[in-house]
Write a structure and sequence with these properties.
Helices cover about 30% and strands about 20% of the residues. It is an alpha/beta fold. It has two domains: about 280 residues, Medium-chain alcohol dehydrogenases, catalytic domain (Quinone Oxidoreductase, Chain A, domain 1, Alpha-Beta Complex); about 140 residues, Rossmann fold. Helix 14 links the parallel strand 17 and strand 18. Helix 7 packs across helix 8, helix 7 crosses helix 13 and helix 10 packs across helix 11. The longest helix is centred in the middle third of the chain and has 19 residues. It starts with a helix and ends in a 13-residue tail after the last helix. Bound molecules: NADP nicotinamide-adenine-dinucleotide phosphate. NADP nicotinamide-adenine-dinucleotide phosphate (NAP) binds next to helix 4, helix 7, helix 8 and strand 12. The site of NADP nicotinamide-adenine-dinucleotide phosphate has 31 residues, from helix 4, helix 7, helix 8 and strand 12.
Length: about 450
Amino acid sequence: MDALAEAVVAGEPADVLERIPVPDAYTAAHTRVQDAGMFRGVEDKDVRKSLRVGEVPMPELAPDEALVAVMASAMNYNTVWSAIFEPLPTFAFLKSFGRQGGWATRHDQPHHVLGSDASGVIVRLGSGVRNWKVGDRVVVATNYVDDQDPATHADGMLGGDQRAWGFETNFGGLAHYAVVRASQLLAKPEHLTWEEAACNPLCAATAYRMLVSDRGANMKQGDLVLIWGAAGGLGGYAVQFARNGGATPIGIVSSDRKAEIARDLGCELVIDRRELGRIGSDPDVVQSAGKKLGKIIRRECGEDPNIVFEHVGQATFGISVFVAARGGTVVTCGSSTGYDHRFDNRYLWMRLKRIIGSHGANLQEQWETNRLVRRGKVASMLSAVYPLAEAPEAARGVQLNEHIGKVGVLCLAPRAGLGVADAALRERVGARGTAPLMVGGPLGAGR
Ligand SMILES: NC(=O)c1ccc[n+]([C@@H]2O[C@H](COP(=O)([O-])OP(=O)(O)OC[C@H]3O[C@@H](n4cnc5c(N)ncnc54)[C@H](OP(=O)(O)O)[C@@H]3O)[C@@H](O)[C@H]2O)c1
């Protein structure tokens, strides 16, 4: 560990951090451009082969940026996409970003430092940053925007150059240091550990926009909300938002353990997708699985779902459109099983349903989400913790859908359980309000 990182871990004050030089290189989980073709024709695209942990050069800091010493990060599905180089190698994003010139050229490197979540300590600020100071403890929002684009001021997700940090930009969070724009910084929820805090921003805020925001499904009390993957990263937060907002969360999962978790999180009805038989986009399969699912929901809840929370994609999208209530909404932010969706449009138009595309969250939505986390109203979905050296192993678990909720990665934090500065709130909200699923991973066992 370099001297600056050691000082951060020791909790040294801002004036000490400011005096210690920034290292020339740092440890990071990254992919390499020369590996981009390694999975061509390979069936099992094992991310452990492409995701490397090693030294990369430290970039210079732009005037609107902060250098964050990363205490913890979290695994996201986008790291799996990056590491299998699909649907296209992320080096294409870096290249096109670099073509803008100026500070953007730094992003076009032969290595891509991944990771779209982080908690940590600010160690340097660009000359144009206001509102933050060295030593501040932060979490990092994923949305990377151009604040000089007029569209950004209506909705940060609509700016033409909006990017996902650590996926469409370089210098992400699975590393000892991360370079972020000041417009990504949020105060760390201080009743949470570093790893509990790190895993919320991306998935919680994406779920918030999808369900709660008026740019998403604009959920209201009494709505029936059907949530695919209710014990997964996005789904676990969606269940909590639905529960908190007076809606009825209905979870779909694939194992007894996940069913138990979905119930504990607040699902009033949990359906094991194994009960639905084959799931897929073939019209006959959609009809048979959709009818089975609709029947269970009507039997147990008396109505069809007003909102379907979608991210699974090809395998489930047709079913989601089929089961949504007349006038209901299917809100989608992803396509884990394939983006070439197929659905029967008759069910959409004749029953006046809507499909809403959603992506990430703007800073306001991200701030609202963080506020709920900071007040102990939304718990971290952390279930396991890995050291940075084992980030490839953590990514493999997510790739194989072996994980539950969120998988944390310790970057500079020497062990799990550190970083709590508001013990009173932690005590008040109890295990249920912090990380109720935390059980395992190489560093989490026994907690
Ligand atoms: N656009 C955005 O801003 C954004 C943000 C975050 C995530 N995403 C995308 O959203 C997707 C999910 O992300 P995540 O972090 O929630 O991933 P995750 O933690 O892996 O959870 C996904 C869940 O989907 C369910 N699932 C997997 N395969 C399925 C299948 N064939 N049929 C039905 N359900 C299936 C699994 O639950 P069960 O096995 O229990 O059913 C799993 O828990 C990814 O594609 C990710 O890239 C997009």
